[in-house]
Amino acid sequence: MNWNSFLKEEYNKPYFIKLLKILRIEYNRFVCFPKKKDILSCLKYCSFRELKVVIIGQDPYHKENQADGLCFSVPDGIPFPPSLRNIFIEVNNCSNSNKNFYPNSGSLVFWAKQGVLLLNSILTVRKDYPMSHKNIGWEFFTDKIIRVISNFKKNIVFLLWGKYAQKKITLINSYHNHYVLKTSHPSPFSARKGFLGSKHFEKTNNFLRKIGKKTIFWSY
Question: Of residues 59, 68, 128, 143, which has the active-site annotation?
Answer without folding.
Answer: 59
